[in-house]
Amino acid sequence: MFARSAIFYSIHPTWLPKTGEKNKRCYIAHQNNITSSTTCFFQRKRILSLLFLFIVLILVMSSDPLCAQGFDSATLFFPNNPTLTKSHKRWRLAYATIYSCRVFITLTGDIFAMKNQLFPSILRMQSYTAIDVSPHDGGGGNDNIEPFANVDQTRLIDLVKEKKLEYLHQFGGVEGLAKLLQTDVNNGIHGDTKDLRNRQNVFGLNTYKRLPAKGFFHFVVEGFKETTVLVILICSPFYLGVFTTYGLRKSLYSFASIILSILVIVSLSAVSTFWQSRLFDSISDESEIIRVDVVRGGKRKQVSIFDIVVGDVVRLKIGDQVPADGLLLDVPFSHVQVNGSSFLTGESDHVDINSSESLLLFSGNKVADRDGRMLVTAVGMNTAWGEMMSSKGHGSAKHTPLQARLNRCPGYYIKDTTNALLGIRGFLPVNTMSTVTIVVAAIPEGLPLIFTLTLFYCIKRMKADQVIVREPAACEIMSSVTVICADKTGTLTLNQMKVAEFWLGEEAMKDGTSEIAPEVTELLRQGVCLNTTDGVRNCPSVLMSEFSSSPTEKAILSWAMELKMDMDEVRQCCTVLHVEAFDTAKKRSGILIRKGDEKMINIHWKGDAEVILEMCSSYYLRSGSVKAIDEDKRNKFEQTIEDMAAKGLRCIALSHKKIPETEDNDNTKVHLKLEEENQTLLGLLGLKDPCQTGVSKAVEVCRNAGINIKMITGDHVVAAKASAIECGILQSDVELNNEAVVEGAEFRNYSEEERMDKIDRIQVMARSSPSDKLLMVQCLKRKGHVVAVTGNGINDVQALKEADIGFAVGIQGAEVVKESSDIIVLNNSFTSVAAALGWGRCLYNNIQMFIQFQFTVNISSLSINLIVAVFSGEAPLTAVQLLWVNLIMDALGAIALAAEQPTGELMERLPVVQNQPLITHAMWGNLIFQALYQVTIFLILQFKGRSVFGVNEKIKDTLIFNIFVLCQVFNLFNARKHGKKNIFKGIFKNRLFSVIIGITVVLQVVMVEFAKRIANTERLNWIQWVASIGFASVSWVIAWLVNCFSAFPINKVYMYLITVLN
To answer: What is the membrane topology listed in the Swiss-Prot or TrEMBL record (predicted)?
Structure first.
């Protein structure tokens, strides 16, 4: 009955009471008190009666069709009364039905009244039926409830952005706010796709709006403002002014050719600048890719900073960038130091975040010291960092020193050529059309394009080799690097440490902790599982693959898991009172804990073995007893440490001390100082970090290239020697005994003169501090070296900034390390560092190749046109022909030479001396002799070509144009290997070069044979084509001869040209 009632109401939603503006809901609840249910039933008795009446009437009205088929429903009730008609029987049937229904309802009410006697147990069951009726669909549930509707977003944003701490109290503190954001402070958010989408829809994405990038036509407009273009534009109207001499048609044709050449020049300049701008933007985008550690669903994972959502629990460590606005968790036990609001104020002030009144973390800050966890409260444009970054436009492409030198070359050419022509036209018959043609021929506008193409190609190929360039100028400087100061861990080694030895007292433990006293095992568990940056504070279970701390911490925690140490159990039974984060200067970290309800405080230290040993006055035995460390025992421990170092192991020591709890060390005191004296040595751990595969070969390649490798490490001096020998940095006893290995303290205590005298002989610096590494870089730069530094930790930041090139090795490195570097090596491989240096040399070499090629074309075309114009009044090459030559030089030639890859020969040369002339002696020799040959041949053809070939003037001019172009094609081969006799070596490795040569030759055939009106040429027969190829191929012979005598002395004019043109 109750189910029928519920169904009846679901059919008539308009009869239900209103419970909201959008949805109408009816809840029919049956409680233990059956009276209310019975009353509800009798209130609906009349409705049920009407329902049955309605059914009966339908049955009566439908009797005629049934009767027509021979069926009479009245006979079911009145079968033996022949006096009644069919209509009377139907009305009596209706009456009997209604009466029976009323009796049934009355009996049902009596049954409910007698329920205690008849159904003592059945009807006591609690139940309810809920009907959710939507006014739009007539029923069904509504799941579109807006998530986080009870969160005041304005106050949530202003909490950190406007520093409104009073809002935090209104949210119920950090715990109350986390509950509102549906976040578990230990396990983080749920983190599934639906949860992340809801948070992004409600609170926004952690991105910011950027101003639109400049389009291609912007750079086209800027190209018309170049000096080159302005000079040609000023001269071009003179073509229209000389139509009386040459005819209007020819003048208009020449004028159109000049305009077309302007468009080509502007287009090439715009393409170069546009590509460089896009390259700069892509580098900027790559540098903004930051990954941070978050806890989602109880598991730690790394995500992009752009995937951070409100409610995330983020783990911060030294050097990280705060990814969003938020609140520090675990106050007062957590302590983080950030660089204040330096991104807004410009001041690098450090702020301690360690109390309930100072727990605000601002997006964009850098963690300067310690580590902690934060709860994200605002992201993206809801932060001050997002607003500032959105107002920041796209960075302009900064010119490197080499690019600035290349950009100055066209200006010098224009100035000198224009001044010369203005003087010549005063007393020689050089017409205006020839003047403009000569100016066009003199402008080497392809230099900026070749730099952009080569830089783009090098950066793209280095990215494929897991090398990301943050600063384009670094690619140029890499060709001049003379010294690499390499960090050992993570650069020369795999950075995958593993515990190889464990000493307890004077015994080497090879069977784990099974034979160790339980109390000592418990202390080891505390020292390993709690005194770590990986999950110090009440974190969920951590799998081996989820460790995100330093390699040393990973190795020790992995060793603990192999020994079946239950980390969760230790963390649950112990309370962390204070943490001393690892200090690179002190080389140790400490922790203060209380176990359960004990009235004793445990102090645990972990760090460099020699440093910890100095703090200890006793040591634990395997049995659990404690013995004092006398002078003899201390010497034995030091020998053990040295023996492990000789095997290339990094030695870590653990110590412990127990003190009674007093008011002075109560955990209500935030800033506690851990005692350092009279510690008890728990054990020694030897960590092995094997060298990278191929590192010795990469070191040898750098040595052959004139690059000196210096290893800088904080390890023991004996361990540093062993690793240096394994990596190939130290190769002989001569180097070992020739002051090649020093300690940081020793180097620091040298006088300035001693340091400058010994700096070149030092190969390894052990026991070094960050200041020692910085001091070495400064000394090397003062001595004239170009220094590259590799680093992956916060302690390398100063040296990375000071160096000429900073390599951040490893994607796991801190964000501040990446920002301090010029290049990021993603795969932690020193081989990639050596390969990057090869690409730097390739960039410089490709630019030199193009300079030799283009200057040969410019000098020869300028000389030919100038000499012929002086003697005949007209230039032999038309503007369209020069336009085609410029296309070969600037576009096709640049593309062909820019795609050259590094070769072994490049890494056999000495480093490029900074600011040396771009054009070497060998290049000048090839350039001048090639230009002299071309000028000589073209002058002979210009004045004697008709008689030599027996052709008319038109074919003679076509021959000059054809030979001139083919000479440049052959000279393109010479430019590939300037200074080398074999110009064809490795030619098939650059397929693009072969394709460009083929395209150029085909287009030249089209220009000569089929573009007669455009190029002003005549068709040539096969003999004339063979002659053209023969004259052009002589350039190969000239290049071979010049390269054979490349050491020929240079006269004063030669040196003067180098000085003027560079």
So the answer is: Multi-pass membrane protein
